[in-house]
Design brief:
It is built from 26 helices and 22 strands. With 734 residues, the chain is of the alpha+beta class. The strands form six sheets. The protein has a six-stranded mixed beta sheet with strand order 6-9-10-3-11-12, with helices on both faces. Bound molecules: adenosine-5'-diphosphate and magnesium ion. The site of adenosine-5'-diphosphate has 12 residues, from α5 and α13.
């Protein structure tokens, strides 16, 4: 993982920063030059003051000349005023220049990140990337505003100061000049220790941020596995470790400034010592000696403070390196040169031999051919992971095919501008993302410039208006982030309203109703039936019942289309689709879920019940209890005794081993029978990803059955043996 994008101090960091400077500064050269010019009074004060003192002492005081004394004092006062007066202006100019550069960088990184492909985000932490655009640019900004200008000022003082020292007394100046490099030696020696300490602290802090992030975003999982204590303990340990590193850094910093101070005193001692000898031997005036010591003092202070500009520049350099790795990342999809606006669809959309891989060589689409005639409803169905959503990504051009093409009326999608393509499509996902703001704001995401009336009409068409009308604040009702004050069904209607707002020619539905409970699904399906009339509809779903009336259905399996046709033809063909259909049917789900039933014949599809006669099967079916659960419910916990066998009637569940997802179960899948037989413990955790309806059979009923029916016992043994063999290769089942 390339998570190393945080400004981490690196030895070459400062050079990276300095090398990047010209490119960063050129667009804002005017402001930069102004802020450098504004440094002049400060430099003049530090270097001119000693000369004025010399004049005061030698020409005025020693000679008893009050006129010169007055002039000298007046000039000193004037210089001081100028320095004080330009201070705020200089700070303002510096900040003006730095923020201009910082903003350039911020905006460039952010807009680049927005253009990167969906796949890019799979392997990165979005939070760290966001931090780069905000925090990383901030580091560059402060290095420019403070460190860079300070460095320029100190270098000017050192250069000009040394020159003046030579004019006062060359021998003395030479001695001091030769000793001056001693000042930063101590700090330099300690700087690697300092960098290492910083890097160590960052490593721990990074762990801490990740832990907090994961714990808070996946708190349902943390609770489910009872990890709160362990996470809190780890967090405490990391916090203590961080402060230990912080104290170590303070220690090293202290040693660095002590070394710098020591070096400074050494130079000063040389200046005072040699100066005293020269004054006593009358080859140096008292005023010159005073001026010399003061100038030397200025130069030393500047040399000392130079060491403090290194760290911010290194940080900025690190941030720039991070930024450049991101900026070098080419967006997977971009407008081609001379991209044209997508004209309205006349005939059809076509996928021709489309191949696609998220990871090089690992194809999840392996030559998809499909036709979507204008004004028809076409579905892509199949079990989870078959590549259905990826087909939609190709159609929406979230990514480009590795081979083959997607064509609108015979013209490759690559020819059209992304903006024009996206404006033609209305997309409803399985989960509608709600951002904080009002209901109207959330619908308007589909088309920011829409009027209130357009928003209302879209909501009416999506069947959301009736609900909104009941709210005291209507469309102005504030939604919390995540939209928890809307039900799942209402969120999906909001999603539909959002999609409809742009009057899309083509509606794209990715499991748009799959996450809903049966009643909401029914209602949302009705709203969809209403709005899909007369439009081209492309729907992806694993639930076949949703698309029985579609014009054409593509059945996908392992990245290929394995069957296609209308529902009746596919059923008649008796292939994958028919099997999937049989797996998903045979359940009568009622509005009051507990009144739902399994048809006895449906149980035949479960291997352990396959050999039982119809009479007994009806008895078994009656013993099943049907219940439902909200998303995020844990049904089975790894390590618990096994006490029920489950059939998932509708919804999606995930199977986790040691907290890692190993499988996703969907409509018609069953699990948990083996553990019932041999009294073993659950080998995995199962929790719901969406609202789920499931049937289950308790241990007592199951054991009774096994006692009475040798066929069931036999079947169980067989299944157990098969599982054990499969487990050896691919440990998945609960
Ligand atoms: N962004 C992604 N990065 C890497 N692999 C992915 C990504 N999205 C999906 N996949 C993988 O591609 C395959 C097809 O996924 P998808 O198209 O989402 O299937 P479906 O929608 O049929 O469930 C799966 O094996 C899935 O794990
Ligand atoms: Mg999908």
């Amino acid at each position: 993982m390339d998570q190393k994008i945080k400004p981490a101090p690196a030895p070459w960091g400062m050079w990276a920063f300095l090398r990047a400077l010209p490119r960063l500064l050129v667009p804002h050269l005017g402001w930069f030059l102004l802020s450098v010019i504004a440094l002049a009074p400060g430099v003049l004060m530090a270097t001119g003051m000693p000369l004025l003192l010399r004049a005061l002492v030698d020409r005025a005081l020693a000679a008893g000349n009050p006129v010169i004394a007055t002039y000298a004092l007046a000039v000193i006062a004037l210089l001081a005023l100028l320095d004080v007066g330009t201070g705020p202006v200089q700070r303002w100019l510096a900040s003006r220049m730095a923020t201009a550069v910082g903003n350039d960088l911020r905006i460039r990184i952010f807009s680049h990140l927005e253009r990167l492909s969906v796949g890019y985000y799979e392997t990165r932490q979005p939070r760290l990337l966001a931090d780069l655009a905000t925090g990383g640019a901030g580091a560059v900004e402060s290095a420019l505003e403070d460190a860079l200008l300070r460095a320029i000022k100190q270098l000017a003082i050192i250069g000009f100061g040394l020159f003046l020292l030579f004019t006062i007394e060359p021998r003395l100046a030479l001695a001091c000049g030769l000793l001056l490099p001693v000042v930063p030696v101590g700090s330099r020696l300690l700087s690697t220790a300092y960098d290492r300490a910083q890097a160590n602290r960052w490593k721990v802090m990074e762990k801490q941020i990740m832990l907090a992030d994961q714990s808070l975003t996946a708190h349902a999982m943390v609770k489910a596995f009872g990890l709160e204590e362990a996470h809190a303990a780890l967090f405490r340990r990391l916090t203590l470790e961080t402060s230990r590193h912080t104290r170590h850094i303070a220690w090293v910093e202290g040693a660095m400034s002590a070394a710098a101070a020591g070096g400074g005193y050494l130079v000063l001692a040389a200046a005072v010592g040699i100066g005293t000898v020269l004054v006593l031997s009358r080859s140096l005036t008292l005023g010159s000696m005073l001026a010399f010591v003061q100038l030397a003092f200025s130069v030393i202070r500047s040399a000392q403070s130079l060491s403090t500009v290194v760290a911010p520049m290194k940080q900025a350099g690190g941030a720039l390196q991070g930024a450049s790795t991101v900026l070098k990342e080419r967006p997977a999809v971009a407008d081609s040169t001379g991209a044209i606006s997508l004209p309205p669809l006349r005939e059809e959309i076509r996928l021709e031999g489309v191949y696609f891989a998220y990871r090089a060589g690992d194809y999840v689409l392996k030559g998809i051919d499909a036709v979507i005639p204008r004004g028809t409803k076409v579905a892509f169905v199949g079990s989870s992971g078959g590549g259905k959503s990826t087909v939609l990504k190709m159609l929406m051009r979230m990514d480009d095919p590795a081979a083959g093409r997607v064509a609108f009326d015979g013209v490759s999608l690559r020819r059209f501008s992304l903006a024009s393509l996206r404006s033609r499509l209305g997309v409803v996902f399985q989960e509608t993302v709600v951002v904080s703001g009002s209901i109207a704001d959330n619908i308007r995401i589909g088309k920011p410039e829409a009027t209130d009336e357009e928003v209302r009409l879209a909501a009416v068409a999506a069947g959301l208006d009736a609900h909104v009308a009941l709210l005291p604040d209507g469309y102005a009702t504030t939604l919390t982030e995540g939209g928890l004050n809307l039900s799942g069904g209402q969120r999906q209607r909001l999603g539909i309203a959002r999609a409809l707002l742009r009057s899309p020619e083509i509606l794209v539905l990715d499991e748009a109703t799959s996450a809903l409970d049966p009643i909401s699904e029914h209602a949302v399906t009705e709203a969809l039936d209403h709005v899909t009339r007369g439009r081209t509809v492309i729907s992806v779903t694993h639930r076949l019942a949703q698309v029985v009336d579609y014009d054409h259905i593509y059945v996908m399996e392992g990245g290929r289309v394995v069957e296609e046709g209308a529902h009746p033809d596919l059923l008649a063909a008796g292939g994958t689709y028919a099997q999937l259909w049989a797996k998903q049917s045979g359940f009568q789900v009622t509005a009051d879920v507990s009144g739902s039933r399994i048809e006895p014949r449906r149980l035949r599809q479960v291997p352990v019940f396959a050999g039982i006669g119809p009479g007994t099967l009806a008895g078994v079916a009656r013993r099943f209890q049907v219940a439902d659960a909200e998303a995020g419910t844990v049904l089975i916990t790894e390590g618990d005794p096994a006490d029920r066998f489950f059939i998932l009637i509708r919804g999606r569940m995930e199977v986790l081993k040691h907290g890692r997802q190993v499988a996703v179960l969907t409509d018609g899948d069953h699990f948990g029978e083996i553990a019932l037989l041999d009294h073993s413990l659950r080998t995995a955790t199962v929790s719901t990803l969406t609202h789920c309806v499931y049937a289950s059979l308790g241990r007592a009923d199951f054991e009774g059955l096994v006692e009475r029916l040798p066929a069931v016992r036999e079947a169980l043994r067989r299944v157990q043996a098969e599982r054990a063999a499969a487990e050896a290769q691919n440990p998945v089942h609960a």
